[in-house]
Design brief:
Layout (H helix, E strand, L loop, with lengths): L2 H9 L3 H22 L3 H17 L12 H23 L11 H7 L5 H14 L4 H12 L4 H8 L3 H29 L1
Helix pairs in contact: 1-2, 2-3, 2-4, 2-5, 3-4, 7-9, 8-9
Length: 189
């Protein structure tokens, strides 16, 4: 099934098309959820809740058949999963989640990445995981997900200045963490 057939089937609430879409993009969505929620069970719930929203509101998805429907679909899924994850964090008063990410997620989530790219991504996520919750959310939304400060401010109910300040502080903390990791690995060699 090509992506246009899957999209058209999902618009018609075709269960087979929905299953294909879910299986094709599950790893992608789970990886996004893990950037916001670090407990495996909650990330899985966020991912599944996100797909429920995707299927429930599929008629809202727009694309041009001659354009890049897969990219547009991935961006739309990404936005829904991010919103679902942030809603989950809000529900829990932005409590930081603790927990490891199972190793198989990294292999399944994006098998097109080289091993060194996966390793660097895992290291970045492990550093981001140590940020205070609001810094982590702003960092994820701005740096990784490409949102503007206006979008972040609007979505989180904070000022644009607060968004910029949180990003700056997050970057400072990450630079310190990375420097500490570099120093500790240079001593162990």
């Amino acid at each position: 099934m090509d992506i246009v057939q899957i999209i058209e089937g999902c618009k018609k609430q075709d269960a087979r098309s929905q299953k294909v879409l879910y299986e094709r993009f599950y790893g992608y969505a789970l990886k996004i959820a893990f950037r916001y929620v670090y407990r495996y069970d909650i990330a899985v719930n966020v991912t599944n809740d996100g797909f429920v929203k995707v299927f429930r509101h599929f008629e809202r998805f727009r694309y041009e058949e001659e354009g890049y429907p897969e990219r547009l679909l991935m961006a739309w899924i990404k936005r829904i999963v991010i919103n679902t994850a942030i809603d989950e964090l809000r529900k829990n008063n932005l409590t930081p989640e603790i927990g490891g990410i199972p190793e198989w997620v990294w292999e399944e989530a994006d098998s097109s990445q080289r091993a060194d790219q996966r390793l660097l991504y895992k290291e970045l996520i492990s550093c981001v995981k140590n940020l205070p919750p609001m810094y982590r959310i702003v960092f994820n939304m701005f740096v990784i997900d490409g949102c503007t400060h206006f979008e972040i401010a609007d979505f989180l109910g904070i000022s644009v200045g607060t968004s910029k300040s949180n990003l700056s502080r997050a970057r400072g903390i990450l630079q310190k963490l990375i420097k500490e990791k570099e120093e500790s690995t240079s001593w162990s060699m």
